[in-house]
TrEMBL record:
Region forming the signal peptide: 1-19
Sorted UniProt keywords: Membrane, Signal, Transmembrane, Transmembrane helix
Superkingdom field: Eukaryota
Coiled-coil segments: none
Record field: transmembrane: 80-101, 113-136, 156-180, 192-214
Region listing for Disordered, in residue ranges: 225-248
Comp. bias intervals (Basic and acidic residues): 225-234
Record's protein name: Uncharacterized protein
Length: 265
């Protein structure tokens, strides 16, 4: 779905550039024919962008959703956040379409970025916090059951930390989008560049996460050192590895040699 939206966005942008090329020539076409095409393409590729943003939030919410299969409160919270993202994207799209129809050169005011960015930031922040809480809870469970060890963290904890760190990075991009929109507006060069980069970033972000998690999952587990004390999860008793030797009243162990001692009657 995100691939289809990204390809549609790319095709519309290319067609938008092709239509605009004759308007700067020596014999430009009639503006009454060009303006409706430009207006339709502007609305179309902005619609693809907003749908891509919502799909990206669905992926982010799904990552946190699967970590809390039994928690109704978490599922309700994530559903409300996702609904807020959909409403924010819809309102922003409606305002943009109305503005472009009235004047296709109008890039909007600095406050137009708030409706879309705040809803998406809130959803990503909530999902990232939940993933971080799950990683912390899992780490505390390991320490409680296995005690403090000198070995490396397990695969599950590494994957959870990877999801949390990638969520923070993705959140930072959206905060940068909001700050740039509020300080410079959408008409600046930096704002236009950011608007072009964000749809592609949102589309490629889930793929990068899947590849990173698969790469981490394929790494072999690093075994703990031989001198490390292993605690069982059930009884909590430590088991230390010693050289195997059975000692009874009829054998005597000296170093690596076993001498048979006659039993005294």
């Amino acid at each position: 779905m995100m691939l289809f939206l990204s390809l549609s966005y790319l095709v519309m942008n290319i067609e938008f550039a092709i239509i605009q090329i004759p308007t700067i020539g020596y014999n430009p076409p009639d503006s009454k024919e060009v303006i409706p095409l430009i207006t339709g393409l502007t609305i179309g590729h902005n619609l693809m962008t907003r749908l891509n943003y919502v799909m990206g939030d669905i992926v982010v919410v799904w990552r946190a959703w699967v970590l809390f299969p039994q928690s109704l409160a978490v599922k309700v919270t994530l559903s409300i956040c996702l609904l807020g993202s959909f409403v924010g994207a819809s309102v922003d799209m409606g305002v943009l379409a109305k503005r472009v129809i009235e004047n296709f050169n109008d890039t909007g005011s600095k406050t137009t970025f708030i409706t879309l960015a705040v809803s998406l930031i809130f959803t990503n922040f909530t999902a990232t916090v939940l993933i971080g809480f799950k990683a912390w809870h899992y780490f505390q469970s390991i320490r409680r059951n296995l005690g403090s060890t000198t070995g490396s963290p397990g695969k599950v904890l590494k994957i959870l930390l990877l999801l949390m760190e990638s969520g923070l990075l993705y959140l930072a991009f959206w905060i940068g989008y909001l700050v740039l929109g509020l300080t410079q507006g959408g008409g600046s060069i930096a704002g236009q560049a950011y608007l072009v980069v964000m749809p592609g970033l949102v589309a490629i972000y889930p793929i990068l996460i899947i590849l990173a998690v698969a790469h981490e999952n394929n790494k072999p587990e690093i075994r703990a050192s031989k001198s490390e004390v292993h605690h069982s999860e059930s009884g909590g008793e430590s088991q230390v590895a010693f050289p195997a030797a059975s000692i009874n009243n009829s054998t005597e162990v000296k170093g690596n040699e076993i001498e048979i001692v006659p039993r005294l009657s």
